[in-house]
Structure formats: C-alpha cells, structure tokens
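This section describes the prediction task in plain terms. A model, or a person checking by hand, is given the sequence of a single protein chain and must write out its three-dimensional structure as a string of tokens. No templates, partner chains or ligands are provided. The sample shown here is typical of the held-out split.
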Amino acid sequence: MNPQAAQLRRSRLTLILLGVLFVGPLIGAWILYSAGLRPSLTTNYGTLVQPTTPLPKLELRNAAGEPQPELMLGRWSLVQLGGETCDAACSERLVLTRQVRLALGAAGVNKDRVQRVFIVPSADAAVAASSQLREAHKILHIVADQTAAGQRAADIFKPTDPQAIYLIDPNGNWLITYQNQTDADAFQRGLLKDLKKLLRLSSIG
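The expected answer:
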C-alpha cells in the first residue's frame, strides 16, 4: 500500500472512530429523548475539528536544541501553546492537564498513552520554560517551534484563547479543541471524560 493510500485509510478510520464516539451516543440519546427520558445531548466537552486536520510537519526542538520530528506521533497529545514566558494562567492550565493525565492512571487507564506538549515560540523561551516548569512538570515535552513563519503551530491552530488545549491523535491528526473554558473544575472533568472514551474505543497510541 502506498503512503498516500495508507494515510487516507488512517484518516477514514479516525472519522469512523469519532463517529462512534460522538455521533453514536447522540443517536441513542435522541431515541431516549423521543421516549420521554430527556437525557443530555452533550457528549464531548471540546469542539470537534471538522474535517479532521492532519498536522503538517513542524520543526520542533527541545530546550537542548535537539530536533523532535516525530514528537506528536504514536501517542495522544494534549498540546498547549505558550509565549515567551508562562504566566499564572498558563501555569494553571498546565497543572490542569497534568492532573487529568494522573486521573487517567487512577481510573485504571494507561496514562502513558497520553502525553503533554508545550510549544513555545523560540529557543530562549524553551530554555526559560524548562527552567521554570521542570520541577512541577517532570513529564512535559517543552519544545520551541522553529518552523518557517506562516507555517507554525500558532498559524495552524489560530488560537482565539491563549489557554486553549488541542487534542492530537497518534497519527498526527488534530481532532478536538478545548477553548474558552472559564470553569476549571468542569473543564477538567469534561476533558477527563473525553479522554477515557477515546482511549477505551481506540487501539492506536
């Protein structure tokens, strides 16, 4: 099978998975609603990216300057974009995703299938973030985006919320955006619920 056909097949499988995960419960809820049971029709906490968007190749380097060409392949990635510094709001969001990942393990889910990726705009920012965050976030990939201007992660995600979280599947597809979350506790519960569903239904990553 040629690489293009293989990529198309993986994209189709991803769409089927998302259909089972998010559309299937809606159908069941509609049946129950019609029967008068009135269940909630909310099945995922974030915004589904339609169509599923494969990430282009990003030139990511860790704080030591080492290339990370396949960082967001092979595992589910919770991606957060940072600036030259990580302020209180940025730090709180990183703590939230750390707690969600730990909660997966406590719930009997293999948390190693999920990684956290913090993308900053420069090599200096990566060094500063590593120094600032390494004690509190020992399992966090901090990388500088050195992709050409106009093709960087920020250009792809086009964030309207600086604290947004982007869920990337193990094949490198952008699936869900979590943004404008003002209730941290509800966000943490919703993100955890979504990840539990995905990891139960998916054998990849």
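For orientation: The helical segments are 3-34, 88-106, 123-133, 153-157, 184-201.
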